[in-house]
Amino acid sequence: MSVKLVRFTMYRIVVVAFALVSLTAGAALPDESQARIISYDSTSDPDGSYNFSYETSNGITRSESGRLVNVGQEDEHIEVSGSYSYTDTDGKPVSVFYTADENGFQIQGPVPVNRDRYFQPNVVASLLGK
């Protein structure tokens, strides 16, 4: 496996992990323990670009796309953009949009502050196809 592919894969894992942490830090509907994935789509192309999206039964949605930029050059990097949304504990919809590129991670929208919330194990298992 090439160094560039390993680096691209690591960037992708870090971005996805950060976004999942951000998503799970937000509040969800009270019935989140029963949430299921109701739609999921994912593509990954040989050039390193990818897209994915999902929606859960408790109203959480997420989508993201990424592409490798300046391939083979010293400033090769990945550009990622995406969004997620959920309903907070007050019943208000929350949407967050983000980008990650050579300028770092930038978020538009409210930054989740309810850090005591997390994904239930069955939701994580559902995301992993188990």
UniProtKB/TrEMBL annotation:
Superkingdom to which the source organism belongs: Eukaryota
Keyword Cell division assigned: no
Gene it is expressed from: LOC113495396
Name assigned to this protein: Endocuticle structural glycoprotein SgAbd-5-like
Keywords: Cuticle, Signal
UniProt cross-references to InterPro entries, sorted A to Z: Cuticle_Struct_Prot (IPR050468), Insect_cuticle (IPR000618)
A GO term, aspect molecular function: structural constituent of chitin-based larval cuticle
Signal peptide (UniProt feature, chain positions): 1-28
Pfam families linked: Chitin_bind_4 (PF00379)
Organism from which the protein derives: Trichoplusia ni
GO cellular component terms attached to this protein's record: chitin-based extracellular matrix
